[in-house]
Write a structure and sequence with these properties.
10 helices, 11 strands, elongated
Length: 367
């Protein structure tokens, strides 16, 4: 991924705009009363996949024999934000959690979005049967060399990435906007620092391969100060890449040494940068997760509904700093239990009445 592409992704991070998403998926999960699961995932396949080339798999996971794939004419769907989304293929699977086998991702780096841990708990309570469904998208472990906690506290991460208002209750819109503006700037600074560290290490590595090593022992000493003196303004989009680092080092040491390194290893710079920032690919994907449970919905940690189903937005921002959990509970009325109970009550009442009459009604006296 080239530096400009990285900056484009970063712009999406800052704005959290759905229009920046390049891969959209609709995941529809239907839970039947018997606990069986029907899952349908929609995606956009390219012409090669639509022609039958399975190597061009458009999904985040491996399509094994458990999935029934259906290709159809291109159509336009609307997500819950009103954005147009093109979908032309779906994969369907019917299973129970007892028989479920883990679904491997197409690329290991996509595992945090491709393989959520889903559980279903079914509880019989005589009058009602309760269904509790949970899907956990695991925290992304590859977050780069700079800890996010250096720039954002845990409550700030929860607010910025998952919309958790627990520590910000009572704020009005003006106050909250000020908080979010500061969080956005700090988040961008964290990203800039991470890209700086990655790019600096790349330059340092390839400088160690060159014959002229006179500056190599001095790089570690200037690393932190170079970032502090050249970090972008808080209103600017960061632009750290190996080529930029070379320019900064040339200026710092008053030399053209690093320009020569840049010219010699330009192609390797891009390859290394792409390899070391693979997790950025996660931010290209958006999943619209829809869930239908039997009976009446009692609780859910979402307020979004579409076509009678609960809806969550799932993307890499939400599980960047912590697990992202989707949970909902419903209940089904056991009508037969009410009928049986009512019948038993009627029988008990009739028995009590019969017993009372037999005990308190005196026999007629003889004349």
């Amino acid at each position: 991924m080239k530096a400009k592409q990285l900056l484009f992704v970063l712009g999406c991070v800052a704005l959290t705009a759905t229009s920046c998403v390049s891969s959209y998926y609709r995941s529809v999960t239907h839970v039947a009363p018997d606990g069986m699961i029907g899952k349908t995932i929609y995606a956009l396949g390219d012409s090669a996949f639509m022609a039958g080339n399975a190597t061009h798999n458009p999904f985040l996971f491996v399509l094994n024999n458990d999935w029934q794939v259906t290709r159809f004419d291109s159509c336009i769907a609307y997500d819950f934000f009103g954005e147009k989304r093109n979908l032309n293929v779906k994969a369907y699977r019917h299973y129970s959690f007892e028989d479920e086998t883990p679904v491997p991702p197409v690329r290991e780096v996509m595992r945090p979005l491709a393989a959520p841990k889903e559980t279903l708990k079914k509880q019989f309570r005589w009058f009602y049967t309760y269904y509790t469904f949970t899907a956990v998208y695991p925290e992304i472990t590859d977050k780069g060399p700079i800890p996010l906690s250096r720039y954002l506290t845990e409550p700030q991460q929860a607010l910025w990435l998952q919309g958790d208002m627990k520590d910000y209750q009572g704020m009005n819109g003006i106050e909250l906007k000020s908080v979010l503006d500061d969080l956005e700037k700090d988040f961008l600074q964290w990203y800039a620092h991470s890209m700086y560290e990655i790019s600096f290490d790349i330059v340092q590595h390839f400088d160690s391969l060159s014959e002229d090593k006179r500056y190599l022992p001095r790089l570690a000493a200037c690393k932190d100060s170079l970032f502090l003196t050249n970090q972008p303004g808080r209103e600017d989009l960061p632009d750290f890449s190996p080529t930029i680092i070379c320019d900064l080092l040339d200026t710092h040491f008053h030399t053209l040494h690093f320009s020569n390194v840049k010219s010699r290893y330009a192609k390797e710079f891009e390859q290394q940068l792409e390899e070391k920032s693979q997790s950025i690919a996660l931010f290209d994907a958006l999943i619209q997760y829809e869930l239908s449970l039997p009976g009446e919905i009692l609780s859910a940690n979402t307020t979004l509904y579409q076509d009678g189903a609960l809806v969550w937005k799932v993307d890499a921002y939400r599980n960047l700093a912590a697990d992202y959990t989707l949970t909902a509970q419903s209940r089904v009325t056991n009508v037969w239990a009410f009928i049986v109970t009512f019948g038993l009550l009627l029988g008990a009442i009739a028995g009590l009445v019969t017993y009372a009459r037999s005990r308190y009604i005196r026999p007629k006296s003889k004349r």
